Amino acid sequence: MMHGRNNGKKLMAVCIVKHTMEIIHLLIDANPIQVIVDAVINSGPREDATRIGSAGVVRRQAVDISPLRRVNQAIYLLTTGARESAFRNIKTIAECLADELINAAKGSSNSYAIKKKDEIERVAKANR
Q1: Where is each Small ribosomal subunit protein uS7 domain found (predicted)?
Q2: H/E element holding 10?
């Protein structure tokens, strides 16, 4: 919940996550916490490309990502995917977040986070 309108609304964020967990439990009848953990594990990129340059020559170099950054990046990608799918849509943010988490936990390419992770790793592989 960033960018302007919903900025700083902790109670709203807590309610969204609570509704998301209820939806996950109803849809796939699994432990919602385990689904979230699996989604974060599957959607965290392992490798990224960074800019290395000196004297005006900039090139990209593939680097490994630290475990903390992997988790942060995964959560960012999951929430961004949910926000984009809920924008101008009849579905609530909780429903979109539940769909995103379920798809990411399965490793499905319908998930925004999984698509972005694959794209980041493909760029890194090209710049090895």
Answers
A1: 2-128
A2: helix 10-28
- The helix (H) or strand (E) run that includes residue 120 is helix 112-126
Residues 6+ apart with CB under 8 A from 91: 85
Going by C-alpha positions, the residue among 100, 46, 102 that lies closest to residue 70 is: 46
Residue by residue, pLDDT tens for the chain (128 residues) are 456 666 788 899 999 999 999 999 999 999 999 999 999 999 999 999 998 887 778 888 999 999 999 999 999 999 999 999 999 999 999 999 999 999 999 999 999 999 999 999 999 999 98
Q: Locate tokens 């990129």: which residue?
A: 45
Q: How much is the pTM?
A: 0.88
Q: With helix as H, strand as E and coil as C, how does 55-68 read?
A: CCEEEEEEEECCHH
Look up the domain containing 105 and give its range: 13-49+65-118
| Cα separation, 34 vs 119, whole angstroms | 25
6 falls within a domain: no
